[in-house]
Write a structure and sequence with these properties.
Layout: H1 13-33, H2 35-47, H3 64-95, H4 97-115, H5 121-149, H6 153-164, H7 166-184, H8 197-203, H9 209-215, H10 223-230, H11 248-267, H12 272-275, H13 280-299, H14 307-343, H15 350-374, H16 381-406, H17 416-432, H18 434-443, H19 450-471
Length: 485
């Protein structure tokens, strides 16, 4: 890094405003994406209909219908997000960073809110596709925007690193929002005739649109992009250009390694809400909650609660414990992003910087889930699961921040959005999130087996991690001061 004067490291009011909006965007990117692991089980139970005997929901873990819809909700939105996100990257280069960023945030916020009012699974799936499209486009536009706003390399690393750290705050907040939605569901207005926590969690995704509407008139365009456009130096972007001989290696290798990072998250970590209810101590607490509902009815002389009400009491306990683990995971992820932001200031080699986090993740994530597959029955293991989730989150989530710092440096201005989008959306959102499809498919069983899910998750994460670790051998080192090119 070149030495910088104290004056050059001071942010102007406009730069603070841009950093604030980018941080909000990054925060709610992850907020929107991490809703699904928390709400997929209750949403499928509600929207999938009741079993023929009326005793419970038709779509429960382990049934073929549940597996098919869960896979669809995880992978189909990612597929659409990746494809249209690539188009969004092209539009970012063609129309400007600010305009595309604004539209993408409004799109995913409105779609997330509307998803909370879904009356069937097809509505939920379609609206989640729009959420993913908005999120995929927003990341690319925000990263290019920030990188070009800060010409000083050291300040650029700080701005990108610390604003991206808010992504993990988003994960932390969505876990907290889901937890409070579960606790306060009965106090909130009824939606579609009931008080279901998953609906309120989805609706909370509207929040990022509110500050954006207020400050949108004060947000500037990227000065680098604007100057090149006004002087006629801005070349026309194209998908073919990122596969030119000088950029082909960069495009292919970054897509593979980004897929590896996402694969560890979506193939393993995001399945924790499906595994945690299988812990013996969680089952014991859920059983006690069910018995308490029956006992309270008997003590007051009321009729015995229907099976659905008794099951709901146990389900809330399971969801609450899963949300607790999610909070630990996101805390680890937040610390990982902060550590990456700090390390980026001192480690010159970008390849080395990535390996500092990626190689430990290669060992930690498969080990945590392999251990979990053999220790669901132990007393006190919920605490160990929390620590394991935090450790896995620390190393894996830090690699997500790495790409925001790295990708703007390896593509010229007129291809920055397109190149970033191919790596993040085709590599990460499509190839990487396909890991969730593999885990769901290979772990499907009747009745559902949390131990099997954990074992398959460990295997899928290991395969993706190894492929990425090997591919880092060919990861190009960016040129100095590359953001102005």
């Amino acid at each position: 890094m070149k030495p910088s004067s104290p004056a050059s490291l001071r942010l102007t009011p406009t730069q603070w405003l841009v950093c604030f909006m980018a941080a909000v965007g990054f925060l709610f990117d992850i907020y929107e994406l991490l809703m699904l692991p928390l709400i997929v089980k209750p949403a499928l139970a509600t929207l999938g209909g009741m079993s023929p005997d009326g005793a419970g929901p038709l779509l429960v873990p382990g049934t073929p219908g549940y597996t098919a819809w869960a896979r669809a909700l995880f992978f189909v939105p990612a597929l659409f997000g990746g494809i249209f996100g690539l188009l969004g990257g092209y539009l970012t280069d063609r129309l400007g960073r600010r305009r595309v960023l604004t539209f993408s945030i409004l799109l995913y916020a409105a779609s997330a809110c509307a998803a909370g009012f879904s009356t069937n699974l097809w509505q939920l799936l379609i609206l989640r596709c729009f959420v993913f499209i908005g999120v995929c486009v927003e990341f690319v536009a925000a990263v290019a925007w920030l990188a070009e706003l800060f010409p000083d390399p050291r300040l650029r690393e700080k701005a990108l690193g610390y604003t991206q750290a808010f992504s993990s705050v988003g994960g932390f907040l969505v876990a907290a929002a889901n937890k409070y939605a579960i606790a306060w569901a009965d106090l909130l207005p009824a939606i579609q005739g009931s008080h279901e926590a998953w609906r309120y969690t989805l609706i909370s995704g509207l929040i990022p649109a509110l500050p954006l509407i207020a400050i949108r008139p004060f947000l500037p365009e990227s000065p680098v992009w604007q100057r090149k456009r006004e002087t006629g130096q801005l070349k026309r972007p194209s998908l073919a250009a990122i596969f030119s001989p000088e950029l082909r290696r960069t495009t292919l290798v970054t897509a593979v390694v980004v897929a590896s990072c996402y694969g560890m998250a979506f193939g393993a970590i995001q399945h924790l809400p499906q595994i945690v209810p299988g812990l013996a101590e969680v089952q014991a607490v859920a059983k006690a909650a069910k018995e308490r509902v029956v006992a309270e009815a008997e003590s007051t002389g009321k009729p015995k609660p229907p099976p659905k009400a008794v099951a709901a009491a146990g389900k809330r306990i399971e969801e609450d414990k899963a949300a607790e683990v999610q909070l630990w995971q996101e805390t680890g992820g937040l610390l990982g992003r902060i550590a990456l932001a700090f390390a980026a200031l001192w480690i010159v080699s970008r390849r080395t910087l990535l390996r500092v986090f990626h190689l430990p993740a290669l060992l930690v994530v498969p080990a945590v889930f392999f251990w979990l597959s053999h220790h669901l029955d132990g007393a006190g293991n919920l605490g160990l699961v929390k620590w394991g989730a935090a450790l896995a989150g620390f190393f894996v989530v830090a690699t997500f921040s790495f790409w925001g710092n790295y990708l703007p440096l390896v593509y010229p201005v007129h291809l920055r959005g397109t190149g970033e989008s191919f790596a993040a959306n085709i590599g990460g959102r499509i190839l990487g999130t396909a890991a969730a499809w593999f885990t769901f498919t290979l772990s499907a069983s009747t009745p559902p087996s949390p131990a099997r899910i954990a074992l398959v998750a460990a295997s899928v994460a290991a395969v993706f991690a190894v492929v990425g670790a090997v591919a880092t051998q060919w990861l190009p080192e960016p040129a100095r001061d590359a953001t102005a090119e």
